[in-house]
Amino acid sequence: MNETAEKSDSSEAIGADGSLLIVEDDAPFLKRLARAMESRGFKVETAESVAEGVAKAKARPPKYAVVDLRLADGSGLDVIETIRSRRDDSQVIVLTGYGNIATAVTAVKLGAIDYLAKPADADEVYAALTRRSGEKVEPPENPMSADRVRWEHIQRVYEMCDRNVSETARRLNMHRRTLQRILAKRAPK
């Protein structure tokens, strides 16, 4: 397939409005992803914080967005909420190294269409953004490890407690500092 045909296919998948907001605090990754998405036909804007992402979403709500869950100044869920409150047809995906079921459910309830764990490459991000509604994603080949199941349970209780560490520790019958250490780590594989 030649370059013109590829761009035509890309434009068709994206549609007339190719505005894309990428909110990510890892600057090198942000630059690489922005370049890759521009080469696929998106009109990319970037933000490196929740405040900057919310401001850009309010000024020009994008059709597409890729939002990191944990940013230096807060939760990417706030950016998703802002985008979805301003534009109903936006397609937002969450990209994070701290993935768990509870935050995935919260992100979907706020309007995200997909949830990708880092390290995700540009092809995975593009596929998630341009996936048609009703199109199914293949289930993973390997089941979750016991450590991952424990992590997911802790995260679910943490979200149920509105991210209150003390209340979560009480419900899990766990010392608060132990819980804080667990929450500060990345999810096990």
TrEMBL record:
InterPro entries from the UniProt entry: ActR_PrrA_rreg (IPR047772), CheY-like_superfamily (IPR011006), Sig_transdc_resp-reg_receiver (IPR001789), WalR-like (IPR039420)
Claim: Cell membrane is one of the keywords in the record: no
Q: Which GO terms describe its biological process?
A: regulation of DNA-templated transcription
- Looking at the record, the residues that make up the Response regulatory domain are 19-133
Q: What is this protein called?
A: ActR/PrrA/RegA family redox response regulator transcription factor
Q: What is the lineage of its organism?
A: Bacteria, Pseudomonadati, Pseudomonadota, Alphaproteobacteria, Hyphomicrobiales
Does the keyword section mention Transcription?
Answer: yes
A GO term, aspect molecular function: transcription cis-regulatory region binding
- Gene3D superfamilies annotated for this entry? 3.40.50.2300, Homeodomain-like
Q: Name one GO cellular component term.
A: protein-DNA complex
The organism's place on the tree of life at top rank: Bacteria
Give UniProt keywords alphabetically.
DNA-binding, Phosphoprotein, Transcription, Transcription regulation, Two-component regulatory system
The PTM 4-aspartylphosphate maps to: D68
Give the matching SMART domains.
REC (SM00448)
